[in-house]
């Protein structure tokens, strides 16, 4: 009977996932003024759709015509066909970038074995409305895979749209082939490029060329070792590498737990390009010591600098193109512009908020993650900084490098309305965020909600923009709020994807965002903004609600809200109170169980956004509680920094307090409680089952941190281990390797020490290629449970080949959720249906 119930739960989960996976989600957008003038825009958006059957995702484009003229108020939008988008290749695409005018599309892709070239051959293409304009091979001697993920991903077009800059992995080096017929000592081991690394032409058996060990930038970076910038000339198809600054010119950084950052930098990775004129571009540079790269994904606490270099295709006064080794301020004329506090990133050139007498003037805006660098906290608020930028070329860059750097004091425009505390929680700037003159429009975390804000670039005054829920149909998008308090914001999630200035001379702009709620999948919406004093903002729905399926209909009837949860210790350290996002079955349906879903990080947040796993569990009868415990971002600096040095204690207490509040709010007393968490959420799940064994029926944990004392020696972010276990002050300056006392502290805050107290069964889901939380963490914990007498049945472990930290493969994601649903059913984690 138990086996049959578990099998039925697994089939139920798979059926729900088939429906939920069929829903597309917007991932990127491009906005261009409609041809012929008038207040109209064409919005092209890229969507993805999970395909669990083949383990991948399907990509497609949707185009919308937005009429924002005065006689069309309220503004309207009409979806149109996009034949040109349908013709663009989708297989093997590493980079797709649409020009600001929408007239050109630049693509870098790899070809298949039967695609007319060698397997893995890389080509660059330029497309227009007339079709493919040219295609050029990209040899491995020039660059490797295009950098697609954060923070290296992204491309930028020159002002005339005559060139495109993007980041890719620099060419790798391999050793020469070794012949078994020749003495090893007689064989040259000189480095050769990949393209020249064929087998040696000698008699006898030949060994394949091997590659020297070269460290990469860690988890989720696709093996990138050294990101480099490349510029393609759109007229000729010529592709060349951008010069880099001398690593020794970058400001020395504070030592981190990996210890090597105090050594002189031996290399530089460059990305995040921003053209400042036709002749050159600004970008971000990350220095790194020889033989080491700290993990970069979701790590803002890495030294960086805003730099500038001439375009490799731009000619100097003599008519010669720029080359490495010439110019002033570094190799090829590259120079460092700004790095306040050791951090400068994501440069964007935008008009100054208060133009000079001639009406001109620009500023180079950028982010500084100096607070993350100083505290060792991996994700922290960012400062918006800027320097004046006048003229063009190297002269403007040199002048900016010596200018005073302004830091925008971002604060609430109206304290009565409230606003995100302590600046902005953003990780990247884009040029289109400055489409409304004098303003920065961005998405930031505000307590539990991801909202759009407008920041005055002159005063720093920050306004929260309207919640899109009401304009998008209210109940169709957003179910009734379950519970909130005056201290909380309970708004739809809105992630700005693109923006553009009004084309008819009006002082306004349009911004396109993906909007969702915990109960509703993402839709595409446009925010039309009037740039005049006291101007308003209007949301317009672009995409229609997702196709009505039984699963989506059930999801729409779910209740959700933000539950205010004061810490149980009364917040004696002076920090703010946390909150939790709660998704529960309809009021007339009694919850059959509670899923506690603590987020990972720990310095991220559970947002009021759509999460497929939460939607699935809710439709299976669970209420899902997602706590924002101390350490979450969006609640201020003090709240964020209250956790390091206290992990395994205050975050565990906050989760238990949030659970109690959510149980009361959902009316789900006396039903089983289970835990579904990954990374630091898995760390909390293991702690909760060890410290509060009576409170939980089961747990399913994904790539969980279980033993910080051992993880510090194998993770791509050993400094995370030091900061979270030892505290901000000690973690940011700890030497490598850790001392015996530090290792003892790391053990004491780890859940593995509570393995003997665990009573509930546990499912461990593991990616065998995880560089962040290596799989040994799960296996050590499994062995600790067995040593404590829990036996094989008490802890099941499933490994997924080739999966990293996110366990993000489409098929893997579905398998993990189905396995967890069945496991919870076997463990009695769901009460029988009434």
The radius of gyration is 27 Å
* Secondary structure tally: strands: 40
Question: How helix-rich are the residues, as a percent range?
Answer: 10-25%
- Main sheet properties: 8 strands, mixed
Class inferred from helices and paired strands:
alpha+beta
Number of helices: 15
Percent of residues in β-strands: 25-35%
Distance between the termini: 18 Å
Strand order of the largest sheet: 33-34-36-35-37-38-39-40
Q: What number is the mean pLDDT?
A: 85
Structural shape: globular
What low-confidence regions span 5 or more consecutive residues with pLDDT below 50? 82-86, 178-204, 253-261, 316-330, 474-484
Describe the protein:
It is a single chain. The protein has 834 residues and is of the alpha+beta class. It contains 15 helices and 40 strands. Strands 33-34-36-35-37-38-39-40 form an eight-stranded mixed β-sheet, sandwiched between helices. The chain has a four-stranded antiparallel β-sheet with strand order 1-2-3-4, with no helix packed on it. α1 crosses α6. It starts with a helix and ends in an 8-residue tail after the last helix.
């Amino acid at each position: 009977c138990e086996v049959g119930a578990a099998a039925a739960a697994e089939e139920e989960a798979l059926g729900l996932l088939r429906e939920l996976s069929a829903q597309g989600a917007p991932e990127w957008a491009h906005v261009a003024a409609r041809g012929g003038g008038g207040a109209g825009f064409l919005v092209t958006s890229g969507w993805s759709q999970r395909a669990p059957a083949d383990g991948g995702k399907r990509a497609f484009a949707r185009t919308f015509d937005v009429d924002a003229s005065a006689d069309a108020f309220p503004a309207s939008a009409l979806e149109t066909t996009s034949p040109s988008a349908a013709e663009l290749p989708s297989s093997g695409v590493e980079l797709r970038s649409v020009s600001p005018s929408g007239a050109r599309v630049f693509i870098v892709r790899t070809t298949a074995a039967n695609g007319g070239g060698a397997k893995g051959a890389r080509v660059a293409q330029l497309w227009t409305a007339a079709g493919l304009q040219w295609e050029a091979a990209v040899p491995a001697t020039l660059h490797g895979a295009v950098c697609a993920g954060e923070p290296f991903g992204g491309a930028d077009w020159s002002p005339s749209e005559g060139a495109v800059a993007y980041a890719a992995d620099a060419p790798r080096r391999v050793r020469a082939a070794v012949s078994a017929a020749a003495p090893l000592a007689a064989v040259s081991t000189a480095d050769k490029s990949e393209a020249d690394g064929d087998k040696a032409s000698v008699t006898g058996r030949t060994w394949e060329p091997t590659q020297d060990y070269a460290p990469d930038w860690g988890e989720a970076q696709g093996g990138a070792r050294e990101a480099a910038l490349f510029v393609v000339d759109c007229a000729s198809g010529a592709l060349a590498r951008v010069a880099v600054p001398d690593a020794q010119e970058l400001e020395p950084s504070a030592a981190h737990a990996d210890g090597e950052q105090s050594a002189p930098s031996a290399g530089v990775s460059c990305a995040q390009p921003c053209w400042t004129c036709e002749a050159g571009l600004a970008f971000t540079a990350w220095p790194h010591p020889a033989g080491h790269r700290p993990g970069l994904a979701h790590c803002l606490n890495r030294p960086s600098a805003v730099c500038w270099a001439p375009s490799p295709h731009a000619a100097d006064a003599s008519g010669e193109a720029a080359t490495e080794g010439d110019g002033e301020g570094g190799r090829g004329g590259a120079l460092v512009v700004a790095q306040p506090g050791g951090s400068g990133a994501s440069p964007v050139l935008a008009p100054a908020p208060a133009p000079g007498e001639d009406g001109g003037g620009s500023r180079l805006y950028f982010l500084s993650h100096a607070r993350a660098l100083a505290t060792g906290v991996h994700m922290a608020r960012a400062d918006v900084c800027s320097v004046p930028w006048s003229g063009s070329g190297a002269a403007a860059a040199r002048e900016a490098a010596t200018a005073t750097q302004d830091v925008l004091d971002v604060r609430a425009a109206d304290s009565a309305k409230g606003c995100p505390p302590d600046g902005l929680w953003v990780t990247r700037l884009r040029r289109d965020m400055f489409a409304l003159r004098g303003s920065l429009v961005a998405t930031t975390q505000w307590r539990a909600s991801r909202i759009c804000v407008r920041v005055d670039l002159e005063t720093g005054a920050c306004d929260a923009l309207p919640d899109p829920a009401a304009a998008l149909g209210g109940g169709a998008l957003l179910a009734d709020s379950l519970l909130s308090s005056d201290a909380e914001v309970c708004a739809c999630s809105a992630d700005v994807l693109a923006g553009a200035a009004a084309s008819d001379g009006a002082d306004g702009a349009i911004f396109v965002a993906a909007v969702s709620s915990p109960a509703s999948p993402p839709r595409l919406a446009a925010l039309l903004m009037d740039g005049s004093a006291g101007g308003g903002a209007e949301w317009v729905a672009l995409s229609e609600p997702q196709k009505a399926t039984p699963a989506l209909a059930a999801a729409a009837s779910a209740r959700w809200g933000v539950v205010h949860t004061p810490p149980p210790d009364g917040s004696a350290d002076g920090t703010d109170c946390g909150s939790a996002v709660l998704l529960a079955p309809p009021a007339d349906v009694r919850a059959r169980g509670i899923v506690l879903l603590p987020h990972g990080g720990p310095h991220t947040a559970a947002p009021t956004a759509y999460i497929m796993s939460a939607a699935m569990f809710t439709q299976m009868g669970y209420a899902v509680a997602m706590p924002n415990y101390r350490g979450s971002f969006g609640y201020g600096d003090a709240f964020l920094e209250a956790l390091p040095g206290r992990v395994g204690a205050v975050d565990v207490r906050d989760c238990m307090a949030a659970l109690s509040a959510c149980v009361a709010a959902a009316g789900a007393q006396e039903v089983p409680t289970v835990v579904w968490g990954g990374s630091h959420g898995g760390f909390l799940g293991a702690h909760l089952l060890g410290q509060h064994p009576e409170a939980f029926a089961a747990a399913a944990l994904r790539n969980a941190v279980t033993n910080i004392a051992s993880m510090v020696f194998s993770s791509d972010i050993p400094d995370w281990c030091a900061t979270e276990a030892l505290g901000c002050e000690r973690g940011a300056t700890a030497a490598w390797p850790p001392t015996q006392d530090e290792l003892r502290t790391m053990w004491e805050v780890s859940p593995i020490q509570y393995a003997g107290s665990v009573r509930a069964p546990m499912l461990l889901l593991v990616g065998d290629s995880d560089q962040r939380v290596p799989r040994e963490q799960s296996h050590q914990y499994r062995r600790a449970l067995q040593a404590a007498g829990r036996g094989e049945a008490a802890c099941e472990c499933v490994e997924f080949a080739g999966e990293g930290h996110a366990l993000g493969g489409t098929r893997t994601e579905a398998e993990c959720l189905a396995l967890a649903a069945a496991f919870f059913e076997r463990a009695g984690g769901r009460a029988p249906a009434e």
